[in-house]
Amino acid sequence: MSEFISKIRTIQWIDDHSRMVDQTVVPYEFKYVDITSGQEMFDAIKTMIVRGAPAIGIAGAHGVVLYAQELKKQNLSREEFINELLKKADYMATSRPTAVNLMWAVEKQKEVIRNSKSDIDGIIEELKQNGIKLENEDIEINKRIGDYGAEVVPKGATILTHCNAGALATVGYGTALGVVRSAFAKDKTIQVFADETRPRQQGARITTLELTMDGIPTTLITDGMCSYFMKKGMIDMVVVGADRIAANGDTANKIGTYTVAIAAKYHNVPFYIAAPLSTIDTSIKSGDEIVIEERSREEVTHINGKIICAPEVNVINPGFDVTPHELITGIITEVGILKPNYNESIKNAFMN
Ligand code: MRU
User: Fold this and answer.
1) Does the beta carbon of 170 sit less than 6 angstroms from any atom of ligand 1?
2) What pLDDT score was predicted for residue 4?
3) Residue 51 Cα, ligand 1 centroid: separation in angstroms?
4) How many CA atoms lie within 13 A of 297 on its CB side?
5) 7-21: pLDDT as tens digits
6) Nearest C-alpha to atom 6 of ligand 1 is from which residue?
7) Of 272, 6, 27, which Cα lies nearest the Cα of 159?
8) Distance from Cα 68 to the centre of ligand 1, integer Å
9) Closest of 212, 229, 101 to residue 160, by C-alpha
10) How far apart, in whole angstroms, are the C-alpha atoms of residue 179 and residue 159?
11) By alpha-carbon position, which residue is closest to atom 8 of ligand 1?
């Protein structure tokens, strides 16, 4: 397994609370915030203090523990405690709608609650331990994704990525940027082109910071530039993350990903998704069933608190788009690279 260790730990359970990097202030500040209540966690996910599909999954799992600790103080019977906690867990899962890792991780905590034979203190301890287990597994899974992905990175490649699917979108290491890290461990001549990623600029603010922290050569471009560089033959492959993958391989990721995929197809540039199996939602047949988050108009009308357009202009702000499976060269997971036909390869990945 790759030895190229990212210095970043995005989220961690500590004693009785969750500690996370506040991603709303990156890159001006790199600071940790402590989240001590269930509602604070709901708000941290919604306001994107923590973001990125796998990271918000872990945040959701921690949020259930925080709710459990609060409910304990209400002196409920064991049955009342369990019923209330399951309701709070469902509420936590609604904090953001598109990234399925959130629902997946909350469901893992609900299984612990339903299956527990312990008293209230015991249930809380089991939830904590399960949250810590999910955290640690996330890093291991990312390293496996990275190592599978590194096998398809050509020597000296320039890799284009969109948004941030890095250490800061996960517990550590990253999915798409995990592939970059593992490839860089073997070949110091690779480099990354990072899309700025309007409107929240995760590419500019977060991807450039975490890659340069690790000494990986990175060039920032604006979202509209990708086809220009592809036409010049300057991009060898695209690797992006995912928020939800349907059973047929259709993939929701940060808005703008679909445009990159179309440009890649036109220019014969391989386009890969890197994501854990927990991002695959086999309950939906195609991307048409994926709920796309609508975010606030201010994300589009303002940059750094300053308005950049006519104040009364209409705005639509979908947070994600769906890339059709025909545009995807492969889906890099912790069990290998899934290839078309995705209905078949995804089914097989879950059977093994
Ligand atoms: O809105 P965000 O910043 O949470 O969106 C994140 C992305 O779209 C990422 O690229 C995706 O979650 C993959 S994270 C490994």
Assistant:
1) yes
2) 59
3) 7
4) 10
5) 789 999 999 999 999
6) 52
7) 272
8) 28
9) 229
10) 10
11) 254
